[in-house]
Amino acid sequence: MATTNINVTTTAQDLQSVTDVDNITTNNIELDNSAIVLNNGSLLQKGTVDNGAGGGIARVCSIGYQDEWENGIQYFVDNNSGQIIRANSINNTVPGINDDITKGYIVGSIFFDMNNQNKYICTDNTDGAAVWDSFIDEPQNLQEVTDQGNLTTNAIQVGNLAGLYSEISGSTVGTASVPNGTYAYMSQDGVFGMNNGAVESALKNTNVSTGNNVILEFPDKTSGSYTIATTADIPAATNFGLFAQTANSTTITNTTTESTLIGTGVGSLSSPANAFEIGDSFHAKLIGHISCNNSATIHLRVKSGSVLLADTGVIALDTTTNKRWEINVYFTIRALGAAGVASIASGGIFSYIKNSGLNFEGNNFSIVNDTTFDTTINNTLNITAQWGAANAADSIYSEIFILNKIY
Questions:
Q1: What is the average per-residue pLDDT within 44-50?
Q2: Highest mean pLDDT of the ranges 174-188, 192-206, 249-263
Q3: Taking Cα atoms as reference points, which of 111, 139, 144 lies closest to residue 125?
Q4: CA 226 vs CA 87, 191, 216, 218, 383: distances in Å
């Protein structure tokens, strides 16, 4: 008869002694809050993050970093803190308001929906009010970026900053050539500037009221170029009005007193001290009505204050009744300075029509004053008339007087 020897001991056995005999079992081995420890200090255990499945299973390295699987989500947990750095989901999970601090998420936690290739970052982990924003951390083209948002407060620089580049910032849009030092820009104030490497110039609006737009427009041109000059480069206008009479002058009649033929008007008859330049030239024209008897004489003078500039001399008149008269006077500045140095040339013609004919009567005249004329003081033009005798039949006045600068 066969016999079987059974070793019986009352001494408790450890796992080593049991597996020395046989290390195969068909039974589950349950660990109660314990771990399998490898000889390098790493652990295989229940995960520390419990998001609905008791913590799943986790691999923990020897210094505490944890890789945990639970409910189809892989968690990467910071060492010994329980804070989730990243979560990878293969169960179509999208993070929501309850994926918050109570589950181990922190601001900056990354959640990757691997099924749909969408990534999210936690920007607020408040309990029950977590905020997750989608983002893309892979290279994108400009179209994809601006599809998501086309506003930035950061400067954008394009090109090789050591050579040619363009820049877009919150204050300036421009382009530059670093080697040459040239650039062009448009500032946030609407100033357009250019630099050729040595000198900068700019275009800008100055003293333009709201609603009054200013347009810089170039006319059509088939070829060639345009030059934009400063006001200092543009020659001053040489032909423009200085004075225009707007009312009849006072009638000079029945008197031998020298009196003005100029009425009130707009503009000025005065030139400030030192305002003249050599070559300045002027034209004065008066038109009016005259009446006189056949023995009348008249004397016309052109003056600056008391300084005589031109003189018709005494003119003997024929009988005329309410006829037109005209005087044209021209002046040119020849030299500048005080009296004795300054010089002015003046000349003109006086004409009228008498009753007994249609031909013009009158006198021409010219004079150069280089003795009493003075450009260093204020000069005010006056044109006067003086009758040779006081007679009520003799009268003269002007209706039109225009003074122009012609050079």
A1: 83
A2: 249-263
A3: 111
A4: 66, 21, 12, 8, 47
Look up tokens 């804070």; give the residue. Answer: 83
Residue 366 has pLDDT above 90, yes or no: yes
Rounded Cα distance, 196 and 180, in Å = 8
Q: Are residues 269 and 399 in the same domain?
A: yes
Q: Which of 175, 202, 229 is the last residue of a domain?
A: 202
Q: Which domain holds residue 346?
A: 240-405
How many distinct structural domains can be found in the chain? 3
Are 78 and 120 in the same domain?
Answer: yes
Question: Does residue 91 sit in the same domain as residue 191?
Answer: no
Q: Whole-model pTM above 0.90?
A: no
Residues 6 or more apart in contact with residue 159 via CB below 8 angstroms: 165, 166
The residue among 139, 171, 143, 142 whose CA lies nearest residue 155 is 171
* Radius of gyration of the chain from its Cα atoms, rounded to whole angstroms: 53
Confidence class of residue 230 from pLDDT cuts 50, 70 and 90?
A: low
